[in-house]
Amino acid sequence: MLKEIIVRCWDRNPDFRPSFEQVLPMLEKALIQIYLPSTLCPLAPIFWEKNFKQQARVHIDVFVPSLIKTLKPVTKKSQTIKEESCLKALLEEEDGDEKVVSIERFGALLTWFGRMKIDKFTILDRVLEVMSSPWFFGMESSQQVERRIAVLQTKPRGTFLVRLNTGERTPIDKAPFTITRVGDDGKVVHTRVYTNKKGGLTIKPNEGETITSKGTSIRDFVALIQTKNATLLTVPCPGWPFEHIFAATPIPRSAYDEAGDEDLDE
């Protein structure tokens, strides 16, 4: 699609070149085909085109409520607040002074957590399921999580966390998650969680046999690993970054960030 647009814009005959007004919808269609193909989620391209026509980025305060309303027209306010906080934590990008959601990041969300709707469940249910797990650390980098573990006074074998693969080295659809843990020798080990041909997840740890699941739920997969190898993943790493969302008494985000920064600077 992009090749076709470029070829038409470079036509030697100016009369055959599309106008800027004609190019915009062509580019939008190309972006949707690249980042929101129907094979990823049949509802995603329809949702984006209906609500954000000819936009590659949308203000996050517009996108998040629109997605929640589309998936759950009727929901409890307390639940909506958690859903909004979780989605913003995963989707938010900076565009100058604005906080936006790009079509690319929305596609990544669907790759990490699955289609917008599967039977009676939505992607909101799966996001809350994972983010409410104290071992989930979102999009923190390998350097960030190594630093977290380095400042721990005790580092028992099997201390672990799960983070999202952002696609810098390995495509997200090939390996959506990474498990970072403390190995037998006390060193930090990063192990990718791959998708397999049967539609499940697979991990190949240095210690023990390959473990494969039938489904794509990362929470179920962590439970499966703990069942197969009790010493591999023993205790969640301290410093869960989403505690402020799920705490019984809400913790202000700013206060939580300051406390976290102080802990890491020690």
Question: What would you say about this model in short?
Answer:
44% of the residues lie in helices and 16% in strands. The chain is an alpha+beta fold and 266 residues long.
Please provide a written account of the structure.
The chain has eleven helices and eleven strands. 44% of the residues lie in helices and 16% in strands. With 266 residues, it is α+β, with helices and mostly antiparallel strands. The protein has two domains: 36-131, Recoverin, domain 1; 142-236, SHC Adaptor Protein (2-Layer Sandwich). Helix 4 (60-71) packs across helix 5 and helix 5 (77-91) packs across helix 7 (123-131). The chain is globular. The protein starts with a helix and ends with a helix. A six-stranded mixed beta sheet has the order 10-9-8-7-6-11, sandwiched between helices. The protein has helices at 2-9, 20-35, 43-51, 60-71, 77-91, 103-113, 123-131, 142-150, 218-228, 243-246, 253-265, and strands at residues 57-59, 93-95, 98-102, 117-118, 121-122, 159-164, 177-182, 188-195, 201-203, 211-212, 235-236.
Profile the largest sheet. 6 strands, mixed
Secondary-structure element string: HHHEHHEEHEEHHEEEEEHEHH
Counting DSSP H or I runs of 4 or more residues, the number of helices is: 11
Widest β-sheet, arrangement of strands: 10-9-8-7-6-11
For the record, give the distance between the C-alpha atoms at the N and C termini, rounded to a whole number. 52 Å
